[in-house]
Write a structure and sequence with these properties.
- This protein has 538 residues and is mainly α.
- It has 18 helices and 14 strands.
- A two-stranded antiparallel ribbon has the order 1-2.
- A hairpin with a 5-residue loop joins β12 and β13.
- α13 packs antiparallel against α15.
């Protein structure tokens, strides 16, 4: 076997001439090199912006709008929203090959694990690396499955020159893929430390706590309507059990609901975050602050929360929807008295930001060609950042898993499993308490389901959950198949608010719950394996 992964090799290997080849034995017989090989497998973890351009997956949902639609030039949120997609051209297409490349790297490492020596100064290190490779393989297969459903399971390194006919794989079922993911997680759990509290330099690596949280997420999806059309109740029971184990382990090992919601996304480390990856920097194209800040702050204003999301933040005093006449909502003062998470997530007309008042008719008017909702994200942004001088930034991370999700995973699975409304509601209300919101008091399964789904929408807004949640619940044909709105403001003193339509979104329930398999992958198999079929409708 020969490896061409220079990133995985120590410095002396990098000094070789370009024609030199590095053997697997050279890489894996040195534990430093083996660890560097594993490090590269982390490269394809999801990030705040998606491939090809700085767009957020939230803009392909009823959370945000992408002010500058570039879908004609390259696939982005606009393709999802207008239905302008095909197997040859659609957003996230590169993730098929990208995730499989990392799965192949996992397989290479696992196939050469016997070559990896012990570290006499860190006896657990060798097994930890194996656990990381197993957990990362599970994670990437889960990411493939939620996009494409049943996908080919490749669990060892394949050389096309040895058995060319074997590379034309069939698609395994969702049941088979899920079973493989759970098997990898079970083995990884026994090899990994619970946390890296004693070795903080290993922050960002997969831990046993990450494995427990991922199992909770995997089983929640597996029990959900898209993956469980027969509504096998036992799947919800399994998801509830996994959710309970993950939540208890987190709470017993120092993870918590951080007291300041906004800080979760601006502090590089805090005790709510279970797993994360470094986020993009602040400045220039693709910078968090550059892309999201309003125009008057010298930002691009490219990502705009929708009125639909704004309307779903309840009133703090009553805990009621703004559509409820008893809520206390005043349409003449629409931003007063809302759920505190609203102010930590969304900047709105009239809000104070960086020493001034946001004005979509003045300094914050959209650029030519932009279609803006006149709202901007607050989540992830640092008020200290000055985009005129490119100063004031600090490192941030993209949260992959956090404690609040575990509460909500457990609440949902327990409610759907039946018979535990009080405990399910208690988990839901723990998240509401942290936000300073009144308790939810209902107990009927259907009503509690809607309350939990609403809480996920608010608590996890702009964190890449909504896109997958509405699909696994099979409600995207409603949430993503309608007109979406922004806000217009006029006058001073007695301000007039209007809510113009920004776009008519479309969602075809006959095909859009799954992404199309990239046409290039279909072409590779065409005529060789009739079992490798395109997703329905594509």
């Amino acid at each position: 076997m020969v490896l061409l992964l220079a990133e995985a090799c120590s410095k002396n290997y990098l000094d070789r001439k370009p024609s030199d080849l590095i053997t697997g034995k050279e890489v894996f017989s040195n534990i430093e090199n083996a660890e560097k090989f594993v490090n590269v497998i982390y490269d394809n973890l999801p990030n705040i912006f998606k491939p090809a351009s700085p767009w957020m997956l939230s803009s392909a949902t009823d959370e945000t709008n992408q002010a500058a639609d570039n879908s004609v030039s390259y696939p982005d949120a606009g393709n999802f929203n207008t239905g302008a997609m095909s197997p040859s051209n659609f957003p996230l297409a590169d993730q098929w090959s990208g995730f499989y490349a990392k799965i192949r790297a996992c397989n290479i490492f696992l196939g050469n694990f016997e070559l990896v020596p012990e570290d006499v100064n860190y006896p657990e290190r060798r097994n930890r690396l194996r656990g990381e490779a197993l957990a990362l393989r599970a994670f990437y297969y889960f990411e493939l499955m939620i996009r494409w459903g049943g996908v080919p399971l490749i669990l060892k390194e394949q050389n096309p020159f040895d058995n060319p006919n074997d590379i034309f794989y069939k698609r395994n079922t969702i049941d088979e893929v899920t079973a493989s993911i759970l098997k990898d997680l079970q083995e990884a759990e026994n090899l990994l430390p619970l946390t890296y509290a004693e070795r903080p330099a290993n922050w960002g690596r997969v831990s046993k706590m990450v494995v427990l949280a991922l199992r909770s997420r995997v089983l929640l999806f597996y029990a959900s309507p898209l993956f469980n059309p027969a509504n096998d109740r036992s799947r919800w029971t399994q998801a509830a059990q996994a959710g309970k184990v993950a939540l208890d382990s987190a709470l017993n090992n120092g993870y918590t609901l951080h007291s300041n919601y906004g800080e979760i996304f601006t502090q590089y480390l805090n005790r709510e975050v279970i797993w994360s990856r470094p986020a993009p920097g602040a400045y220039r194209d693709g910078g968090i602050d550059q892309e999201m800040n309003p125009r008057g702050s010298n930002g691009y204003g490219n990502i705009n929360p929708l009125q639909e999301l704004v309307d779903d933040y309840e009133m703090k005093q009553t805990g009621l929807s703004v559509k409820d006449v008893a809520s206390g909502y005043n349409p003449q003062k629409p931003y007063d008295g809302r759920d505190p998470r609203f102010y930590a997530t969304i900047l709105y007309p009239g809000a104070a930001w960086k020493g001034r008042t946001l004005d979509p008719n003045g300094a914050d008017v959209p650029r030519s060609g932009q279609i803006s909702s006149n709202y901007w994200p607050r989540k992830y942004l640092l008020e200290s950042v000055n985009l005129f001088t490119n100063t004031g930034a600090a490192d941030r991370k993209w949260v992959l898993m956090r404690t609040a999700e575990l509460y909500l995973n457990y609440a949902e699975a327990l409610n759907e499993a039946g018979g535990a409304a009080l405990e399910s509601r208690s988990a839901l209300n723990a998240v509401r308490h942290r936000a300073g919101m009144p308790d939810y008091a209902g107990s009927a399964t259907d009503a509690l389901r809607e309350a939990i789904r609403h809480e996920r929408r608010i608590e996890l807004a702009l964190e890449d959950h909504r896109f997958w949640d509405v699909r696994r619940w099979k409600i995207a044909a409603v949430t993503d198949n309608k007109e979406v709105h922004g806000v217009g403001v006029s006058g001073s003193g007695n301000i007039t608010y209007t809510y113009p339509v920004l776009e008519k979104r479309v969602f075809d329930a006959g095909k859009n719950y799954w992404l199309p398999i990239p046409q290039g992958e279909i072409d590779k198999v065409s005529g060789r394996n009739p079992e490798f079929k395109q997703n329905p409708g594509w």
